[in-house]
Design brief:
Elements (H helix, E strand, L loop, with lengths): L1 E4 L6 H13 L7 E4 L23 H10 L7 H12 L13 H23 L3 E5 L2 E7 L7 H11 L5 E4 L3 E5 L4 E5 L13 H11 L7 H7 L14 H6 L1 H10 L12 H4 L8 H9 L24 E5 L4 H6 L6 H13 L7 E4 L6 E4 L2 E4 L4 H18 L3 E5 L1 H8 L5 H4 L4 E2 L5 E5 L2 H6 L3 H15 L3 H4 L1
Pfam families: DUF4130 (PF13566), UDG (PF03167)
Protein name: Type-4 uracil-DNA glycosylase
GO molecular function: 4 iron, 4 sulfur cluster binding; deaminated base DNA N-glycosylase activity; metal ion binding
Length: about 475
């Protein structure tokens, strides 16, 4: 039995390096005992490589492994190595077999880690601490898994302008305004118990509490009681629950108002994006029932392209031919898009192409099916799928074709014709650009107007060349 230990059991690079060495040496998984930090006091020597070309490993597996390694299950290293061994020894399609024990276990771990990360983002409360050179904000949190290094960048983006420290029992994260660093675990005594802003926060929380939507069991599932001890607003909950019925009756007596319909922007959909590889997401999307568009549509039209594409091109929604083929951009607009991409010097095969809405919405006219724009609720129902595609691919840039796609990425205030054809840096550093949808060109009446608009479309698409070089 070959004993292998890891200095940081959740680090993908370290696990990948040792797993690769074992794989090249031809060490069967059943002959490897994986341990955590210091369990065996050091590694046994891994035999030298047997020779031959290193096997290719799907990027989807590495994405799954990166999340699974944050899980607290001590079996994670061994199961991941067994999956790696199987992938490189004749089971290339392993990740697509959802019923396989190892795959099902890994997906369950991914789901649990993602949920824990979501809880950390939702329930961390920073408290103000005065120091000699100003102010620092400190938070204490007790996650179920080792997720600090994966969630800390979220807080960097959210609280870039302030110095903060996030303390957990396993490790700590620190942002000084310029650089993010990590340290060993801390204790609850290292974090402050309150600050001057908490009364204001409790007032705000009380004011937004909606008694008409109160479901105590559901609230405890979404905000488990174990987190309450670190939440300043938790002390209000018993009173708010007690007074919910009288407040609801008072609300019923008031005249109803109709809220304005809005589609949640893409950034807000990231936290609710489904988990899994692109292959798993595509399978899940086939059974999506979040809105009624699936009923008349032939099938879900999911995105296609390289899983490691540097650019994701986002259209609006499938048309008649896309619905029949199950692939995006294969109809008249898709053919025009392919032609414009070729003239712009950009290979469609190098980008991942998808749509904001995944089902064809139409109005029957005899034997024809006329395209109909998806409404706000239908767009919102599809938003997590688009967010999940982008989250798995991690592209350098997004290119939006049409107003629906542009507003999904930039927000409802974005004006396509006024802001098209320019790279805009999104929060987090990713670039995005918008241009017209090729179907817009097909609808233009005059040849001269159409030729001018097509030339501008090609120029916009040409902006992708520098990113792909």
């Amino acid at each position: 039995m070959l004993h292998v230990s890891l200095a940081d059991p959740s680090d993908l690079a370290e696990w990948r390096g040792k797993a690769r060495a074992l794989l090249l040496a031809g060490i069967d998984p059943q002959h490897v005992a994986w341990g955590g930090e210091g369990l065996f006091g050091g590694d046994d020597a891994i035999p030298p490589p047997l020779g031959g070309k290193p096997p290719a490993v799907p990027r989807d597996f590495l994405n799954v492994a990166n999340t699974v390694l944050a899980h607290s299950d001590p079996r994670r290293h061994a199961v991941l190595y067994r999956m790696l061994w199987r992938l490189t020894h004749g089971e290339k399609g392993l990740l697509a077999i959802a019923t396989d024990d190892d795959v099902a276990w890994a997906h369950a771990c991914v789901k649990q880690v993602n949920r824990d990360m979501h809880k950390m983002k939702a329930f961390v409360r920073f408290r103000e601490v005065a120091v000699d050179d100003g102010t620092v904000y400190v938070a204490w949190f007790e996650p179920a898994h080792d997720i600090v290094t994966r969630v800390a960048p979220f807080f960097v983006r959210r609280f870039t302008g302030m110095r903060w420290s996030l303390l957990t029992p396993a490790r700590t994260a620190h942002w000084d305004g310029d650089a993010l660093s990590f340290g060993p675990g801390a204790s609850r005594a290292d974090a402050p118990s309150g600050d001057a802003l908490e009364d204001l926060w409790r007032t705000y929380y009380s004011s937004i509490f909606n008694p008409a939507r109160l479901k105590v069991d559901a609230m405890k599932r979404e905000m488990p009681v174990k987190y309450w001890k670190n939440l300043p607003e938790a002390q209000l909950i018993p009173t708010l629950v007690r007074d919910a019925l009288p407040r609801m009756q008072a609300m019923v007596e008031k005249e109803a108002t109709v809220p304005k319909k809005r589609v949640a922007p893409l950034a807000k959909a990231m936290d609710t994006a489904p988990a899994g590889s692109l292959t798993a997401l595509r399978q899940q999307a086939r059974d999506c029932r979040a809105c009624d568009l699936w009923r008349p549509a032939t099938q879900t039209v999911f995105g296609e392209g390289p899983a490691d594409a540097r650019i994701v091109v986002i259209g609006e929604q499938p048309g008649d031919q896309e619905d029949l083929a199950g692939k995006p951009f294969v109809g008249p607009a898709g053919k025009l898009f392919n032609q414009a991409m070729e003239e712009a010097g950009v290979s469609r095969a190098a980008v991942y192409v998808t749509n904001t809405v995944k089902h064809f919405k139409f109005e029957p006219r005899g034997k024809r099916r006329l395209h109909k724009r998806a409404n706000a609720e239908e767009q919102a129902a599809c938003r997590p799928w688009l967010a999940a595609e982008i989250e798995r691919i991690q592209p350098d840039a997004l290119v939006c074709l049409g107003a629906m796609a542009a507003q999904a990425v930039f927000g409802a205030s974005f004006r396509l014709m006024a802001q098209r054809g320019e790279w805009i840096t999104l929060p987090g550093g990713r670039k995005a650009m918008a241009t017209v949808h090729p179907s817009y060109l097909l609808r233009l009446p005059g040849e001269e107007e159409r030729a001018e608009a097509y030339a501008a479309f090609v120029r916009d698409l040409g902006l992708m060349r520098d990113l792909l070089m």
